[in-house]
Amino acid sequence: MNLEDESFNKHSSNLIEILGKSLIDSQQVSEELKDWATSEAGYLVNNISLSRALRSLAFYRTVIWDVFTVELEQKQFAAITMLDVSKIIDPLLDEISAEFGRVYEEYSNKLMKIAYTALEELSVPVVPINKSVAVVPIIGEIDTHRSQLILEVTMEESSRLKLEYLILDVTGVPVIDTMVADNLFKVINALRLLGVETIITGIRPEIAQTIVSIGVNFKGITTFADLPTALASIDLKVVHK
């Protein structure tokens, strides 16, 4: 790191000033030091990795001790004084390291949450066919959390796109048991309140047998074996290449 860098010099001088105050009263500078660490970490987190940030802190430690060493030598302080200074300064520098770690972890969790939310939304794609019809291809298991996501996304998109029909294609759903069926019914009933007719497609023969054997009743719900048949039922043409 370049000591001539103006920003670095400013941050270093601020830290040295705070640590200098700590030699007089370490309790009073604790909050000021935390504010400095939070501000510094907030800057670093958007520019460098945590490992580099900790290396920069190690450099701060070296610079600070160089400054104090010169001061102690010039004033001919005893070695015991140096030890006393170390007992005050080192824990404060450790607090800065901990604050750096906390800010980086918080930032990392925030990024992960954003990425996870984006991934979840991609797992429930609403694909418009025309101005009034859209298809939602569902792939993978439908648990309670995902069913809630399907409900939220389909209602939001149906309202935004002003849909009349929404086709839920469950070809990629491995199992449809009582819980999954109940979750699908909730989505269908909620969309019905918005004036959207929901059609289910892609129920495979083995899934149909399971549904019958466990007594799940799909009465009143429009279902088709595949997507082309469903589209044809609402007077849409599917072009097969």
Automatic annotation (TrEMBL):
Keyword Phosphoprotein recorded: yes
Alphabetized UniProt keyword annotations: Phosphoprotein
PROSITE patterns named among the record's database cross-references: STAS (PS50801)
PANTHER family per UniProt: RSBT ANTAGONIST PROTEIN RSBS-RELATED, RSBT CO-ANTAGONIST PROTEIN RSBRC
Descriptive protein name: STAS domain-containing protein
Pfam families xrefs: STAS (PF01740)
Domain of life per record: Bacteria
